[in-house]
């Protein structure tokens, strides 16, 4: 006997069947995905290796917190000495034994662009960087309209001055402009009976032989004096009339018989002279302070903003490292996920900044750092920091140091010295 269904009964039965089918679909597809957790999390444990120049303790709390939140990610950090870091990284990548994540200098992105993998647009886009970090980061770490690295911190040189010497000379405040610096030179410079330097006002004007940061200070002066096209990525180095004026200004402090002669490569090492109170002022990065204090625990010094050419348009100099992802990483997506979290998550970025005592790169943390006397000056300066394009930062600095030395020894006039430096720099790429 055949059972007859009314139209209403058929519709009800169809609805029940559809509901059952939907329930089965949910059970089959949704429940397993819930069991696996967030689809962005790796399904099984993976190990990501990190290589960098910094002490492992700078990363310890950061990596511990990240693995606590992402239990299937194991992070292993290895420190490589800075003086052989670049070579070690390149050799390891050539033999497929390199890290998943690596620290890169701000100048390395173009040179490393075939060895590191840019972030996908859904992860982070170039347009987001200026909201997250000071402007210099987008200039350094965006290449071909992709983000290739992100900064852990931003360091800038500042003026270090001896408070005791300033008090003894009746000088109440540190200089804010280069004009102020020149005014103070006679107060602190002393000569022997034979006209040799005995005391220096400021460690400036020498080459890298006596002043470690000489190329950076000269580069900063070029930017402050308005030298053009120094920051264009891929631009071949050219030093214009403003760059020449910066070199002339810089070397006058190490040129005998000028009114502002106060330094010589033969006088002393800048760090040692400042520690021994043989010079009243010098320049240093935030990273230099710890060693300065360790070597000279009783030195009474202050940290002051970098002197400016134009106070209404401050320009500072950026030197820093970031994190990038190797193109041969075992899991590029997870490696980038860590890099983005470590540098843009305020909680994780704070863990790194607290342990390293480096000035933070994240804008939201810069204001918080203004209450920290050891890094407040450096943190504030990051907002106006700039830096020239450098295909190879070591070669760039070496060439500028040679240009300073060749002017001081009379081997070349300033423009010729800079033209020779440009040729050396451009031969690297």
Automatic annotation (TrEMBL):
Pfam families tied to this protein: SBP_bac_1 (PF01547)
Keyword Signal: yes
Keyword terms of this UniProt record: Membrane, Signal, Transmembrane, Transmembrane helix, Transport
UniProt entry tagged with the keyword Membrane: yes
Transmembrane segments: 12-31
Superkingdom, taxonomy of origin: Bacteria
Family: Belongs to the bacterial solute-binding protein 1 family.
Protein name: Extracellular solute-binding protein family 1
């Amino acid at each position: 006997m055949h059972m007859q269904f009314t139209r209403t009964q058929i519709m009800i039965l169809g609805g029940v069947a559809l509901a059952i089918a939907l329930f089965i679909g949910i059970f089959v597809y949704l429940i397993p995905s819930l069991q696996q957790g967030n689809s962005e999390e790796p399904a099984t444990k993976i190990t990501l290796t990190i290589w960098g120049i910094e002490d492992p303790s700078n990363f310890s709390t950061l990596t511990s917190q990240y693995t606590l939140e992402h239990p299937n990610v194991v992070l292993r950090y290895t420190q490589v000495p800075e003086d052989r870091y670049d070579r070690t990284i390149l050799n390891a990548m050539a033999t497929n034994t390199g890290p998943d994540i690596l620290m890169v200098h701000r100048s390395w992105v173009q040179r490393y662009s075939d060895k590191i993998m840019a972030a996908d647009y859904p992860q982070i886009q170039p347009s987001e960087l200026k909201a997250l970090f000071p402007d210099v980061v987008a200039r350094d770490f965006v290449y071909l309209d992709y983000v290739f690295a992100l900064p852990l911190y931003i360091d800038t040189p500042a003026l270090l001055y001896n408070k005791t010497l300033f008090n003894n000379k009746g000088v109440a405040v540190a200089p804010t402009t280069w004009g102020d610096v020149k005014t103070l030179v006679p107060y602190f410079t002393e000569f022997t009976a034979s006209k040799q330097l005995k005391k220096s006002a400021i460690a400036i004007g020498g080459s890298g032989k006596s002043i470690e940061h000489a190329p950076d200070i000269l580069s900063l002066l070029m930017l402050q004096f308005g030298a053009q096209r120094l920051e264009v990525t891929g631009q071949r180095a050219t030093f214009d009339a403003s760059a020449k004026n910066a070199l002339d200004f810089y070397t006058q402090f190490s040129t005998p018989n000028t009114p502002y002669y106060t330094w010589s490569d033969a006088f002393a090492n800048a760090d040692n002279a400042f520690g021994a109170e043989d010079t009243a002022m010098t320049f240093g990065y935030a990273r230099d302070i710890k060693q300065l204090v360790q070597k000279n625990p009783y030195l009474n010094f202050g940290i002051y903003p970098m002197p400016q050419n134009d106070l209404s348009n401050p320009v500072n100099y950026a030197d820093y490292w970031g994190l990038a992802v190797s193109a041969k990483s075992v899991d590029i997506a997870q490696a980038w996920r860590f890099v983005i979290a470590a540098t843009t998550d305020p909680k994780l970025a704070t863990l790194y900044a607290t342990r390293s005592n480096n000035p933070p790169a994240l804008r939201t943390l810069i204001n918080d750092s203004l209450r920290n006397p050891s890094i407040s000056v450096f943190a504030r300066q990051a907002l106006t920091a700039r830096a020239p394009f450098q295909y190879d930062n070591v070669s760039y600095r070496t060439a500028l140091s040679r240009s300073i030395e060749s002017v001081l020894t009379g081997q070349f006039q300033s423009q010729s010295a800079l033209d020779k430096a440009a040729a050396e720099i451009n031969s690297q790429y």
